[in-house]
Structure formats: structure tokens, C-alpha cells
Write a sequence for this structure.
């Protein structure tokens, strides 16, 4: 029994319920797909903007003029002028990165809040051993948008806390790597030794710390939705719950990792085989790139859908507590 009053389920049962939640409500997969598309579009737009500001694509200037659109040409020339001052360019790029990061964080938090709320409602509807239909929400979209609006503030803070933890872990890896690079370019054996030792020490710390941060984050998402806690309170509750059931949480994490590897291999192996076969058959570069791009898109779609399953599995690891009413509104609560 965890401190929140919810008994844990076996890892396999929790994983199976996570699969059932997503299969019974396939529309929920649209949320991570939308975020993936938005993130890709933002990075493409950001890359294009940086290229304009840094005056990299000189050929585009002629393309702009060829359109015979004076306003577009003037806008382009204005962006070129911004890049004339290096400090101003750096400030502009940094501000753009900050705005883009905050926007993506807000979208990620909103989507995670909606998904967690909907997955929690789906899990609460189905008793133990219930058939697949029991997990189906009467209105998945309504459940998602209601939870996204109600839980956004908590999840925005949670996503930022998770990002801070990931940044600190990444620093453990990047610092010795930077020392290694400095030693290699500066021909300083002492730097190479120190950097190499730090690098190999950081690798296991990064692996264990990354896994722990992910488990705590997913568990905190459930605590924020179910128990109505703020970000710090949800993290504290997650740590308490995980200390009460470390074995099942660890097994569930390893099970989700194995499932993720299986999903990736299911697309990587045929993609490699078909691209090699297309190249050997003399189909040309466009055929090879087309096959590779198609399988990559399918793999990303399956991966994002699987991430939704993982979120549902960690929601289902703990059985709904009597106080779960905050996560399951009356209009979507179990009948």
C-alpha cells in the first residue's frame, strides 16, 4: 500500500492496461502526433530564420527578387540588415530560441496534462480484468480538453522541472566531453586523462539518473492529476510512492524500454533491408530516400503512440485512490 492509499498493480498488468487505454481510445494518439508535427515545423522555421539572419542563403535573395514581390524583397533585405551587427544577431537568435523553447514547453505541458487526465479517466472506468470496451471513454476529446485546461499550470511546472533535471544530467556528460576535446586539440595529455575518466564515470550516472528522472516524472504526472498536487508536491508524492513499490516500478520501466526497442526494430530492420534492395536494384537515390523517409515517418508515428502507452502504464501502476475525483470529472467518471 503506497502513502497515497493506492495499492500497486504488477508491472505486466499495468503495461497491459496502458495498451488497453490507448487501443480503446485511439484518438488520444493525435495529441503526441500534433506535438511532433508542431516541433518539426518550429525547428524548420527556426532554422530558416537563423539562416536568413546570418546571411547564409545568399541565393535566396535572387529568388526573392524573381518573385517580383517588392514587399517580400524588402522584408528579406531587412532581415539581412539585422545580421550586419553581430551582437544584435546573437541577441536576436537567443531571444528566438528562448521564445521557441517556452512555446514548445507550454504545448508539451498542455498535451501531457490532457493525455494524463484522459488516461487516468480511462483507467478509472475499467475494473480489474475488465474487457477492452470498459476502457473506452464516452468522449475522449472532451476528457482531453477538460484535463488540459484544468491541469495545465501544474504540468507546465512539472515539464520545466523535468527539463531542468535533464539539463543537469546532460551537463555531467558534456563537461568531461569538453575537457576531452580541449585536451585533444590542445595536445594536453592531462586533459585527456581527466576528461576520459570523467566521461566514463558520467556514462553510468547519466544512464541511471536519466531512468530515475523519467520514472519520477511519469509518476509525478499521475500524482498531479489524481491527487490535485502542485509540481513540487507531485514530485514528493511520486518519490514516496516509488519508495513503497520500487520493484514493480523498476520492472515496469524496463518493460517499457524493451517495448520501445521492439517498436524501433520493427521499422528499422525492414527499412534497412528495403533501402539496400532498392539501391541494389538500381532504383536510384529518390527511391531509396522515399522508402527510408516513409519508414521513418511510420516509425515516428508508432513511437509517439507507444509513448502514450507508456504514460498510461504508469497511470495504471497504481490503482485509483478514493481521492481520485480530482482527476476524473463527474461527466467522464465511471458509471
Amino acid at each position: 500500500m503506497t502513502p497515497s492509499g493506492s495499492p500497486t498493480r504488477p508491472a505486466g498488468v499495468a503495461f497491459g492496461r496502458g495498451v488497453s487505454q490507448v487501443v480503446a481510445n485511439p484518438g488520444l494518439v493525435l495529441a503526441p502526433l500534433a506535438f511532433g508535427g508542431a516541433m518539426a515545423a518550429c525547428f524548420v522555421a527556426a532554422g530558416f530564420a537563423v539562416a536568413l539572419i546570418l546571411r547564409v542563403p545568399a541565393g535566396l535573395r535572387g529568388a526573392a527578387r524573381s518573385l517580383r514581390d517588392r514587399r517580400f524583397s524588402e522584408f528579406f533585405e531587412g532581415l539581412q540588415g539585422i545580421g550586419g551587427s553581430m551582437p544584435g544577431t546573437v541577441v536576436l537568435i537567443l531571444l528566438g530560441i528562448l521564445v521557441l523553447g517556452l512555446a514548445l514547453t507550454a504545448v508539451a505541458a498542455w498535451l501531457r496534462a490532457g493525455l494524463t487526465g484522459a488516461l487516468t479517466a480511462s483507467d478509472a472506468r475499467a475494473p480489474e480484468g475488465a474487457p477492452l470496451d470498459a476502457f473506452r471513454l464516452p468522449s475522449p476529446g472532451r476528457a482531453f480538453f477538460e484535463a488540459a485546461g484544468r491541469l495545465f499550470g501544474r504540468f507546465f511546472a512539472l515539464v520545466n522541472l523535468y527539463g531542468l533535471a535533464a539539463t543537469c544530467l546532460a551537463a555531467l556528460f558534456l563537461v568531461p566531453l569538453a575537457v576531452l576535446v580541449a585536451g585533444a586539440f590542445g595536445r594536453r595529455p592531462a586533459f585527456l586523462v581527466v576528461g576520459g575518466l570523467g566521461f566514463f564515470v558520467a556514462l553510468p550516472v547519466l544512464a541511471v539518473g536519466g531512468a530515475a528522472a523519467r520514472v519520477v516524472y511519469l509518476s509525478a504526472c499521475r500524482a498531479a492529476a489524481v491527487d490535485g498536487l502542485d509540481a513540487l508536491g507531485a514530485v514528493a508524492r511520486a518519490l514516496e510512492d516509488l519508495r513503497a513499490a520500487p520493484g514493480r516500478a523498476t520492472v515496469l520501466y524496463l518493460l517499457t524500454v524493451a517495448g520501445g526497442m521492439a517498436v524501433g526494430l520493427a521499422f528499422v530492420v525492414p527499412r534497412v533491408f528495403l533501402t539496400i534492395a532498392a539501391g541494389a536494384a538500381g532504383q536510384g537515390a529518390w527511391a531509396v530516400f522515399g522508402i527510408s523517409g516513409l519508414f521513418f515517418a511510420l516509425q515516428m508515428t508508432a513511437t509517439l503512440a507507444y509513448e502514450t502507452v507508456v504514460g498510461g502504464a504508469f497511470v495504471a501502476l497504481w490503482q485509483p485512490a478514493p481521492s481520485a475525483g480530482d482527476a476524473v470529472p463527474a461527466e467522464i467518471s465511471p458509471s
